[in-house]
Specification:
With 330 residues, the chain is an alpha+beta fold. It has helices at 22-47, 52-76, 79-95, 101-115, 123-129, 132-136, 139-143, 214-218, 293-312; strands at 147-152, 163-168, 172-175, 181-186, 195-203, 235-244, 247-260, 263-276, 279-290, 315-316, 324-329. It folds into two domains: 2-130, no CATH class; 135-329, 3-Layer(aba) Sandwich (Protein Transport Mog1p, Chain A), CATH 3.40.1000.10. It has an eight-stranded antiparallel beta sheet.
């Protein structure tokens, strides 16, 4: 039975393409997944006529959930590449055809599970990242329950602060390169590679030889003091005070630019700052790599609802979902 489902993680070799990065490899693997599944369903409908209604139901359920993502892939991949992949797909399918009606039913059940998101990596991440619905409204992936939790427990860069945060399931993540950056999360969307969230932790200087109380720390985020968090090369757009998990907190929105390979790129950053036990946790939400501030602002507006959900999921110490109260100051 297991052999029937080999192409779940269909490892496509890219014949004739020696320079394919991992992202492209994942795209091709996911394209193979979509095509192979569809052709397997066609075979079951032809071989076992009694299952045609079940085939239709399974196909429809998957198409409703992930069909648009498969359609996007079909447009992205050149015809020549598809032709190169076809013999590989044919070879795999010839070895994994269901031999009897029970095996066919098992496959249909598997497809039903896939429609609900029971899909192996990296296929699941690619299908979610290419969803037209989630591309238009990134927060909907999070709201639909397609998330994963990152937990920093005894991390050397977290300075003794244990925390967790949820991110969209399709996003990539990696260790931060700088000394204070614990983790960096990046959107996998085709036009959203410049969207990222970086979490870092810094110590707050002692006050008269002791840590600040929460009441004293709240003063760090009042209108006049919060400007101290703005870097010299940044322009302050907006700021405000918050409470996150009943901890004093604040936020700033800044604009900045950087010259890369002779091209000037613009970014807008929404930074949340949470005081906890003598440290500040920074959640930097960045819309960058754009050609003007207006484009960066539009991209930030698009992703701000998602950023808010991610920060709302932040839990420090006790594992529970915190509430956010916001007061905006110009």
């Amino acid at each position: 039975m297991k052999g029937i489902f080999i192409f779940i993680l269909f490892a496509l070799t890219v014949h004739g393409q020696k320079r394919v990065d991992q992202t492209n490899t994942d795209l091709l693997r996911t394209h193979g997944y979509c095509i192979a599944q569809d052709r397997q369903l066609d075979h079951i409908a032809e071989t076992f006529p009694a299952l045609r209604a079940e085939v239709f139901a399974s196909r429809s359920a998957f198409a409703k959930a992930f069909g648009p993502s498969c359609d996007v892939l079909d447009v992205l991949i050149p015809l020549e590449t598809k032709q190169e992949l076809k013999p590989q797909i044919d070879s795999v399918l010839s070895k994994t055809r269901p031999g009897d009606i029970e095996a066919a039913r098992a496959f249909l059940k598997l497809v039903g599970g896939r429609a609900g998101g029971d899909i192996h990596s990296p296929v699941k991440e690619i299908l979610l990242a290419l969803s037209p619905e989630y591309s238009k409204q990134p927060e909907e992936e999070f709201k639909s329950g397609f998330t994963r939790k990152y937990v920093a427990r005894k991390h050397p860069k977290s300075k003794g602060v244990d925390f967790s945060i949820r991110i969209p399931f399709s996003w990539k993540f990696r260790e931060g390169k700088r000394s204070n950056i614990v983790q960096v999360f990046n959107s996998r969307g085709l036009d959203d590679n410049a969207i990222s969230v970086a979490v870092s932790v810094s110590r707050v200087p002692l006050f008269q030889g002791r840590k600040l109380t929460d009441e004293e720390a709240a003063y760090l985020f009042v209108k006049d003091k919060i400007r101290d968090f703005v870097q010299k090369d940044e322009q302050l757009v907006e700021s405000g005070s918050l409470q996150i998990q009943n901890q004093p907190a604040g936020f700033i929105v800044t604009d900045s630019n950087a010259l890369r390979s002779g091209i000037l790129f613009y970014s807008r950053t929404l930074t949340y700052m949470i005081y906890f036990d003598g440290k500040i946790i920074y959640v930097n939400c960045i819309a960058g790599g754009l050609r003007d501030y207006e484009a960066a602002a539009r991209k930030m507006d698009k992703f701000k609802p998602l950023f808010s959900l991610m920060v709302s999921s932040l839990a420090v110490g006790a594992e529970h979902r915190p509430a956010i109260q916001t007061k905006t100051e110009q």
